[in-house]
Write a structure and sequence with these properties.
Distance between the termini: 24 Å
Order of helices and strands: EEHEHEHHEEEEH
CATH topology of one domain: Rossmann fold
CATH architecture of one domain: 3-Layer(aba) Sandwich
CATH superfamily of one domain: P-loop containing nucleotide triphosphate hydrolases
Number of strands: 8
Strand content: 15-25%
Largest sheet: 4 strands, parallel
Shape: globular
Length: about 190
Amino acid sequence: MLGEVAAAERILVVEDAAELRPVHPHVVSLQGRPPNAEGVGEITLRDLVRQALRMRPDRIVVGECRGPEVVDLLTALNTGHDGGAGTLHANAAHDAPARLEALAALGGLGRDAMHAQLLPAVRCLVHLVRRGGLRVVDAVCVLEQNSATGRAEVIPAWRHDSGPAAGWSLLRHLLADRLGPDACPVVRP
């Protein structure tokens, strides 16, 4: 997907281990580093996300949030760096908010504050699973605010096994707002 970003846009990729290699003419990859034998020289993902903001990014991508760097990613996504992304491990798509809560807590961000940062920053969630040794898209979901709790709720828009789901029209609306009315084809179950 990153390869589809307009060539004039600058993509900053931040990772612990270099795994993402988008085919794009304007990518800057930053990689974390563990401390040396003397315990110094560590460069954390948190450090790199903060530094990435100073490098004029159009899009920031954090590969595999596993700790408090999720707070910095949410902060970055709420500073006008539209179209950014991050990856994390969760058991299922609907478990992603709980996983984000746990990671944000490591960064000192409370549950309600995390949801207040998440909802304006992240609108779409893509859940991958392994099938036959390959990673495949299992579900595409949208995040909406639950009116009773004020927290993010995961609404499936498309599922591998059944096609369009309850959030399909919302996903189409989001894509049309961003890419134009013809961006999302009509798909029938």
